[in-house]
Design goal:
Two copies of one chain form a homodimer. The first copy, chain A, is α/β, with parallel strands linked by helices. In chain A, 38% of the residues lie in helices and 24% in strands. The longest helix of chain A has 21 residues. At the A-B interface, helix 8 of A face helix 8 of B.
Chain lengths: 464, 464
């Protein structure tokens, strides 16, 4: 399907390039003229981005050399050292690591076993921030429910038990509630630990980790994810009238915060260096897989977009800044620290673009900002017909740019084909082989064109 | 896609049923008349098979209650006890377990770790029949090759090393050679152990087990499968010039053979009880997952097909016999023992049908037998237009019926949509949730119609 769609886009691009105006019309209206003025530059950027696999190769190097990059881990800091050195080698400017204190949660040994009605090992991942079980683990009867509502109905049965939320996949937003709030809800009815069905539409016996919360109002209990297959099995066994007994053991610890960094590099603007277009992703990952999709790919796509401008000698009038934020996954400390460190500059942050949906085939952008700005970025997006990312929908951004978006910085998220994103999300299967060099190059092209034009055009992207 | 295709088939069936002859024509040619004579019975069978989810429910009960069913395991024998009791309850005739001595390979603890250039646990499954490593394991440099040919070229580098065959998926037949013969080829060039990329087109960090061979000509060395992701990673690291060191530990043991059983049940033929149509699958599985797809589904589909005839009071003139063969996966002892125990009957085995490709949406049958018989079964298959299994291609059968096919029994294999079969094959992800109740019911219908008509029709399916 991806290949067919590329063919279609190539044809569409051809039609577009041959049927469009031969040269920018000086008499055109200002808003229309953006696309006209930047068509040549955009075509150069796109051709260069698609001319090699350098983004994919760099991502491969990153994830193969350092593996996953969890907050507080040595891997993450070694990867950041390498990234900063590479950014220098790329000839980027003002390369630096901006310090950020990040939490350090360490998984330790962990396991879940079904003891009755028959023995079965249940593959699992503790959820980030969970407390440990007592030494020797917890053995308890299991209560399986499908929703918070069902737990409320069956509250009397939950006391002293381990609760399993076998919530069916209903899209990420609704389903992730059980990962986020499951331990609180289970503790409220007296459960001794809580488990969830992994938050995913598809499973190959694959546990998915992710962030979770506690409340100061109720006891903290261990919280972990098992596979969709096993959650369904346990529900069927309960429905068949079986008494289920499980043993949960987790050694998870929260250690003192440690220092990490946001990696930052720039092409300083030629005319308005204080006005900034920032783009990036988060360099931290969960402590499983390679964090290739989430979000090594987004980081390298943004980084390569800026490197591409440098290589093409396209220095925009405003500053283009790439930021690889740290600690998105279990704290958002990188995005918050960026806001705090750059508070004085935020009025001059023209646009913030994040890529954190995987670098699959791009489909467009989501934009949060003024109507007038939305019209402008839609005009710019027409330059991306050859890449296919022509749609700019209202709403969108990213977790790392959330803190500055709340300070009125216009925000934008790269949108991509999301078919398989949640298959791999926060699992051992988030590895480089799930990505495609050409799709990633298309993402680089989209990020580079959008950031370059917004940074270079006469018009300052208007806020409300 | 499956749903759409069902709609199409329903429409096709309607056209077929309304535009066909109103009643069987007595003047029609004999070969054409089979479909006419059996249309009403076939439609009854199909309607009954699609009228409930009993096959899927029975399979769920089997796999949830007993889990995987590896040769030599208690699970397998407990499952067989339950199956034989259920077959009696179904009212089937001559229900019995026919004894078969089977190998008993026990996996034990096992692991592979990458030690250099950085530590990484490599999920793995030892291959069935492999020897153990020495106590404490083997630590050695790794040599990654992509083919037997490359190993031959690099033979000088293999001595004292662990060889990894990172053979890309090229279809099951070619790729499984590395699982089957990898340990022999690696030992021939002096390797101390061998690993393979799991035999699969798709991976979620999923190791796949399966059978392997040794040769008496060369030393036996441990042989195991790692994931496609890790095999690719190790190859990339080798290409990047890294020295790779891995530690392999396996406690696998081959214990003395133990007794298992082929489960057999019949509807005895009303006129020619000595003539037999046999259908079935293999009840053993690998020691991972639930063996739901491979081949619990095939077993239950055949069993339910025969139960359906019983329920509809469709006693054919010949005997219909369901056999759930044991030990297909790592020995084929069930199929061989069946041949030996029934040698005197083989001339009267009219047809043998196996379902061992998963009970996904059926697409047809493969048939191995005479041209005249192929024409007849093609005629019968036209009765399956409502089910979609109208194609009968030349060639086909199954592993368990292979031994009797080599004694000239005509053989047939149920063919199904194979898109995902090798995703789950021999893995922890071969679980009931991968199957669909309606698709499984379609398989039951196809097996029931084909076996009933062949067992009942005037014509004896001709051999060459």
């Amino acid at each position: 399907m991806a290949r067919q769609s590329h063919r279609f886009l190539a044809t569409a691009a051809l039609v577009y390039l041959t049927s469009g105006p031969a040269a920018p019309s000086l008499s055109a209206q200002p808003v229309e003229s953006i696309a006209g003025r930047y068509r040549a530059a955009a075509d150069r950027i796109i051709a260069a981005a698609l001319g090699d696999s350098s983004a994919y190769e760099r991502l491969t190097q990153l994830v193969d050399q350092f593996g996953h990059r969890f907050s507080g881990s040595e891997n993450l800091e070694l990867a950041l050292d390498w990234i900063l050195a590479e950014m220098e080698r790329d000839g980027l400017e003002n390369v630096r690591g901006e310090p950020v204190m990040v939490p350090r949660w360490v998984r330790g040994a962990e396991s879940v076993e079904l003891l009755e009605p028959r023995h079965k090992n249940l593959p699992m991942l503790g959820l980030g921030g969970s407390i440990a079980t007592p030494h020797g683990g917890i053995t308890a009867e299991l209560l399986v429910v499908e929703s918070f509502a069902e737990l409320t109905e069956r509250a009397a049965e939950a006391r002293g038990r381990i609760v399993l939320f076998n919530a069916p996949w209903d899209g990420y937003g609704p389903t992730v509630q059980y990962r986020g709030r499951g331990a609180i809800a289970a503790a409220q009815v007296g459960a001794v630990a809580s488990l969830i069905r992994s938050v995913t539409p598809f499973s190959m016996n694959t546990p998915h980790t992710g962030a979770m919360s506690y409340s100061d109002e109720v006891e903290r209990i261990p919280h972990a994810a098992i596979t969709a297959e096993d959650a369904a099995l346990l529900m069927r066994l309960q429905q068949a009238g079986e008494r289920l007994v499980v043993h949960l053991e987790m050694e998870a610890q929260t250690l003192p915060d440690v220092e990490s960094r946001n990696a930052v590099a720039e092409i300083v603007g030629s005319e308005r260096p204080d006005e900034i277009v920032v783009l990036g992703g988060h360099i931290d990952s969960w402590d499983v897989g390679q964090g290739a999709m989430d979000d090594g790919g987004g980081c390298v796509a943004a980084w390569e977009a800026v490197k591409l401008l440098k290589r093409l000698n396209l220095r925009p009038r405003r500053t283009v800044r790439v930021v690889l934020w740290t600690n998105e996954e279990n704290g958002l400390r990188g995005g918050t620290a960026y806001r705090d460190a750059h508070r004085d500059e935020l009025d001059n942050h023209i646009l913030a673009i994040e890529s954190d949906a995987g670098v699959f085939e791009p489909t467009g952008f989501g934009f949060s900002g003024s109507e007038a700005a939305l019209e402008m970025v839609r005009e710019i997006a027409t330059l991306l017909v050859p890449v296919g990312t022509v749609t700019v929908s209202r709403g969108g951004g990213g977790a790392d740019i959330g803190p500055i978006m709340r300070e009125d910085v216009p925000g934008m998220g790269l949108q991509v084909d999301g078919t398989c994103y949640f298959w791999y999300h926060h699992t051992e299967a988030d590895t480089i082989d799930k990505l495609d060099p050409r799709e990633m190059a298309l993402c680089v092209a989209a990020m580079a064109v959008m950031s370059y034009v917004v940074a270079d055009m006469d018009e300052r992207l208007p806020r409300d």
